[in-house]
């Protein structure tokens, strides 16, 4: 090998270091540090937290904050409420959205244009504009401080999102598949159930994951609609851990860790769907 | 012919019955509250008493005159503009970096998504703890590097508080841009770059003339979406500072909450939340045009 090609290889290597690895390292440090800081705080003894001598590492890891969280706080209620509300609202949203997306994607009827525009509008209009009137409605339905109230109101942001996403998926399915079934005398419901639904499973999976994530993260509605600790979900319930002047960072970060890790695990398993879903709104369409 | 007519009527029935649950929920709990919000903002409406009088634009005029509203309006503009600008620029940079070939790219793309996966209310709290003046990570690191002499209360002083919450929003939103733009980049045919290279285009030229036009649509849609979300964002600021200190980080959304629930003046509160509606309407119309699918 000549010295010239060796040199050019070295230049390419340095170029790669500066254009790829160093920027990547900086981004990852910035992105991941809070995760590290959360976990490390959650297993750090209160004594070490107070001493401030060794902030980035731990001398003697402990589970005391997790113990305190699980035995002395309402965390278990918040966590199960988050699960119940998330699962129920996601399931309902998927059923309602599949039913609504099919005719909008496939059938001709008056109001189709209006429905499709209405869905996009409902998806885009900020929740902070409608939460006060919605609060009056929830109050009148006597659904404040209930899980049902949350399930119902979470549907307001899940259904527009899922319907919009699914219309795109349904429309991409070749018409011929349905026409054959129609000639054979299949009903529209049978077509939706036996043809459209199985083919669109990746889209439905994406809609499911995203809906669940939206509900897992939701903060404004539970903050406004529910007040008692036992009816609360984790994002709001965690505030009950902040009482008085002395903030128990250990316990708060333990709650954060327990609430975040399942999400990271799920996303790790199904990364491909996520990236597709994230880009569906902007790339597709 | 007749048969076709019958089946069309049947289709219509199918269409309306299948969309009925969606229409009921979205109509009753999104569209109706939206119009009710407009009505509320034109009324004297307090917690407990309900609507007592129609006052026209009075709430808007009162709101416009209030110092806190002006502060929140200014903050919202800074918040939205700075967040979106930095998210676009950093997201673009990261997408270009990720678009190169390197080992473990799947794992690294997964790690890039972490700020977006951590529930925002949790990460906002983690950042409060990082910015803390007593034992927070940022102060400790800066003190050790001798960049500051004494701990700074990042969220406690007006000057740094807005900057800090904006930085958290950028941290959270950059991965979304990076991954969406990366998908756009992957759609640009490789051959085009090679052709440009042969024609003697340098890296900057091929970015401006090939890359940018290639991802124009994705870039535009995600920027508009992100702007709408930034204007409507509530949880980061409410979690981190509740709008304080002394309103230095109040956004229109957090001010709406405060006026509505702490002073109980719902008419005023809703008028605050509706102020950005003209801007939102323009953005929504633009997005609708861009996302149009010949429906």
Attribute tags:
heterodimer, A: 285 residues, mainly alpha, MetI-like fold, 2 domains, 14 helices, 78% helix, flat, B: 295 residues, two-stranded antiparallel sheet, 2 strands, globular, disordered N terminus
Please give a quick description of this structure:
Helices cover about 80% and strands about 0% of the residues of chain A.
Describe this protein's structure.
- The complex is a heterodimer of chains A (285) and B (295).
- With 285 residues, chain A is mostly helical.
- Chain A contains 14 helices and no strands.
- Chain A has helices at residues 3-42, 46-51, 64-72, 75-106, 112-124, 127-140, 147-171, 175-183, 188-199, 201-217, 220-225, 234-237, 249-269, 271-283.
- By secondary structure, chain B is mainly alpha-helical.
- Chain B folds into two domains: 2-41, no CATH class; 58-291, Orthogonal Bundle (MetI-like fold).
- In chain B, strands 1-2 form a two-stranded antiparallel sheet.
- The radius of gyration of chain B is 24 Å and the shape is globular.
- The chains are: A mainly alpha (285), B mainly alpha (295).
CATH level 1 name of the largest domain in chain B: Mainly Alpha
CATH architecture of the largest domain in chain B: Orthogonal Bundle
Beta-strand proportion of chain B: under 5%
CATH superfamily of the largest domain in chain B: MetI-like
Distance between the termini of chain B: 26 Å
Helix tally of chain B? 15
The proportion of residues forming helix of chain B, as a percent range, comes to over 70%
Q: Runs of chain A with pLDDT <50, length 5+?
A: none
Strand count, sense and closure of the main sheet of chain A?
Answer: none
Shape of chain B: globular
CATH-defined fold name of the largest domain in chain B: MetI-like fold
Low-pLDDT residue spans of chain B: 1-6
CATH class of the largest domain in chain A: Mainly Alpha
Order of helices and strands of chain B: HEEHHHHHHHHHHHHHH
Order of helices and strands of chain A: HHHHHHHHHHHHHH
Structural class per helix/strand content of chain A? Answer: mainly alpha
Could you tell me the CATH topology label of the largest domain in chain A: MetI-like fold
Could you give the distance between the termini of chain A?
52 Å
Report on the biggest sheet of chain B: 2 strands, antiparallel
Largest interface pair:
A-B, 96 and 101 residues
- Characterize the overall form of chain A: flat
């Amino acid at each position: 090998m000549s010295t010239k090609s060796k040199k050019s290889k070295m230049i390419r290597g340095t170029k790669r270091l500066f254009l790829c690895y160093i920027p990547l390292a900086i981004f990852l440090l910035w992105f991941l540090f809070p995760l590290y800081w959360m976990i490390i705080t959650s297993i750090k003894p209160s004594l070490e937290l107070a001493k401030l001598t060794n902030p980035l590492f731990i001398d003697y890891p402990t589970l005391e904050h997790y113990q305190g969280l699980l035995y002395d706080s309402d965390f278990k209620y918040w966590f199960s409420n988050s699960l119940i509300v998330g699962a129920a609202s996601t399931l309902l949203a998927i059923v309602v959205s599949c039913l609504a997306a099919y005719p909008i994607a496939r059938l001709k009827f008056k109001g189709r244009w209006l429905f499709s525009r209405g869905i996009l509008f409902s998806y885009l209009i900020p929740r902070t504009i409608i939460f006060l009137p919605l609060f009056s409605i929830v109050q009148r339905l006597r659904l404040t401080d209930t899980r049902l109230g949350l399930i119902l109101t979470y549907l307001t942001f899940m259904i527009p999102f899922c319907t919009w996403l699914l219309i795109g998926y349904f429309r991409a399915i070749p018409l011929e598949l349905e026409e054959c079934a129609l000639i054979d005398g299949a009903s529209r419901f049978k077509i939706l159930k036996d043809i459209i639904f199985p083919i669109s499973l990746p889209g439905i999976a994406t809609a499911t994951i995203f809906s669940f994530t939206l509900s897992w993260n939701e903060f404004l509605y539970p903050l406004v609609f529910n007040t008692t600790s036992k009816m609360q979900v984790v994002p709001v319930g965690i505030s009950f851990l902040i009482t008085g002047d002395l903030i128990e960072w250990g316990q708060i970060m333990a709650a954060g860790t327990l609430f975040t890790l399942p999400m990271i695990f799920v996303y790790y398993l199904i990364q491909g769907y996520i990236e597709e879903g994230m880009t569906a709104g902007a790339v597709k369409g | 012919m007749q048969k076709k007519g019958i089946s069309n009527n049947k289709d219509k029935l199918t269409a309306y019955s299948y969309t009925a649950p969606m229409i009921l929920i979205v109509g009753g709990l999104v569209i109706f509250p939206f119009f009710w919000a407009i009505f509320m903002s034109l009324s004297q409406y307090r917690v407990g008493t309900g609507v007592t009088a129609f006052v026209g634009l009075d709430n808007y005029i009162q709101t416009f005159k209030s110092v806190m509203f002006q502060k929140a309006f200014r903050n919202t503009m800074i918040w939205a503009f700075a967040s979106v600008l930095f998210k676009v620029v950093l997201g673009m940079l990261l997408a270009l970096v990720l678009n190169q070939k390197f080992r473990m790219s799947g794992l690294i793309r997964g790690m890039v998504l972490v700020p977006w996966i951590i529930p925002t209310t949790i990460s906002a709290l983690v950042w409060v703890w990082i910015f803390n003046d007593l034992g927070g990570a940022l102060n400790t690191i800066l003190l050790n590097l001798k960049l500051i002499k004494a701990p700074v209360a990042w969220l406690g002083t007006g000057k740094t508080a807005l900057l800090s919450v904006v930085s958290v929003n950028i941290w959270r939103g950059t991965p979304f841009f990076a991954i969406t733009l990366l998908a756009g980049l992957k759609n640009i045919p490789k051959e085009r770059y090679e052709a440009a290279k042969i024609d003697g285009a340098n890296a900057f030229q091929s970015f401006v003339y090939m890359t940018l036009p290639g991802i124009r649509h994705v870039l535009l849609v995600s920027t508009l979406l992100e702007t709408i979300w930034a204007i409507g964002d509530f949880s980061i600021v409410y979690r981190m500072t509740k709008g304080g200190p002394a309103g230095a980080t109040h956004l229109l959304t957090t001010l709406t909450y405060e006026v509505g629930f702490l002073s109980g003046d719902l008419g005023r509160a809703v008028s605050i939340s509706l102020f950005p509606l003209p801007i939102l309407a323009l953005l929504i119309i633009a997005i609708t045009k861009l996302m149009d699918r010949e429906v």
